[in-house]
Fold this sequence. Notes:
The longest helix has 22 residues, at 261-282. This protein has helices spanning 2-18, 96-103, 162-179, 194-210, 232-236, 239-248, 254-257, 261-282, 288-302, 306-311, 318-324, 356-376, 401-411, 430-440, 465-482, and strands at residues 28-38, 41-55, 61-72, 83-87, 106-108, 123-125, 135-140, 148-149, 187-192, 216-220, 332-333, 341-342, 416-422, 450-455. The strands form three sheets. Strands 1, 2, 3, 4, 7, 8, 9, 10, 13 and 14 form a ten-stranded mixed sheet that branches. Strands 5-6 form a two-stranded antiparallel sheet. The protein is α/β, with parallel strands linked by helices. It is built from 15 helices and 14 strands. The radius of gyration is 24 Å and the shape is globular. Residues 9-18 have low confidence and may be disordered. The protein starts with a helix and ends in a 10-residue tail after the last helix. The chain has two domains: 22-226 and 363-482, Rossmann fold (3-Layer(aba) Sandwich); 232-354, no CATH class.
Amino acid sequence: MKKICLLALCLYLFFSKSFAQPDPPADTVISTKHTTVIKGSKIAYNTSIGMQPIWNDEGKAIATVNYTYYERSDVNDKKHRPLVISFNGGPGSASLWMEIGYTGPRILTLDDEGYPVQPYGEMRDNPYSILDVADIVYINPVNTGYSRILDKKTDKSLFFGVNADIKYLAAWLNTFVTRINRWQSPKYLIGESYGTTRVSGLALELQDAQWMYLNGVVLVSPTDLGLKREGPVDLALRLPYFAATAWYHKALGSDMQQKDLDQLLPEVEEFTVNELLPTVTRGGSVPMAEKQQIASKMARYAGISEKLILQNNFDISTQFFWKELLRDRGLTIGRLDSRYLGKDKKDGGERPDYNAELSSWMHSFTPAINYYVRNELNFKTDVKYNVFGSVYPWDRSDDHTGNDLQQAMAENPYLHVMVQSGYYDGACDYFNAKYNLWQMDPAGKFQDRMSFKGYRTGHMIYMRQVDLEKANDDLREFIAKSTVKSGVPAKY
Length: 492
């Protein structure tokens, strides 16, 4: 028996080593030259894709972070040339979504509404990329993209947590900015989804620990940023998203459907704050007649029955909404983008069987990034590109990133913030994003440096062709507004 167990152990060790992924190089870079046309003008640019180490206190490389850096090559004045530092979310997601979906010079070919087309993974020039006005670096945190822990004895908690993530990436950025000689450049952080938690914390960490000051932070489909909203507030804030999605799927009454979304949503927002929230706050003390009146209005806006709303004490979860809204049509709706439709095994139940939108995106973006990096950027490796990597357990405690961003704004009169949200995003909905801005600035002292932009898309605001152009133009405008002229002092 002992011999059999020993043989099994030997076989396990042999095969685990045989099929283990190789480590990426700790420190390397591959550069290529390209041209494209953006907003009608020919742009020459260099691309550098590589790995840059993370060192411990003894100077040993314990991990390496993968990045892709796009730099316009026909601009010599780097002092006034903005640098945009881009992250995605997850927290275990690579940066491919923003890089080949939104702001980069080469993007995935999709149809006009953002659905994949075959052959999968075909790339095209992005005529709306912000590379004409700013250089961009896309960063893959540890265990995403090609980034990996190199020393297997390293404590993973150094990387996998709200504050650990912010701390090591701030130090990494100090080295990166030094290497590319961009300390004088105006700098911007842009993050999507959990990336908004990351960049909100980084804004203060870069200032206070690395002495690197920013001109702007862009939050795309932001999380709650550690700003609590529980009980009645959490319940009520969902309704404007419900209304937008029901309107899109023509699930509202004819009087509601006749209104444009820009007319409907302000009306729903007013009802949410002024009527729904006070009602659910008062709970059981509200007379039944009043409850029925509020439930009837909520039902008209949400596209589901008054009876269901009352049965659930106004607490309609997003998961239930994705299953319920089109149940009578035998369809479910997507979580990250509720324009997408799914089909479940059965129409009964409380939640969809799968995320229709993510299934669509994965089988179009994954082939594209693997082909693009290897064949166009000439970065050849046997290391697996982690579209989603394992970063768990992730320490979510002590998340004060929203307040960190406010503090960074207070310390830095140059710093501006812009939010970009999709109306059909059911994971990080647009009205919660507005709530973030309200709570970050309760005294209204920073309103002249805060802005909100909404789009008729979902979580990935750039998936729809019309909004890809609009969102990039909004970034251009934001950069132009927050890039300060020479000689203007940073003071109140």
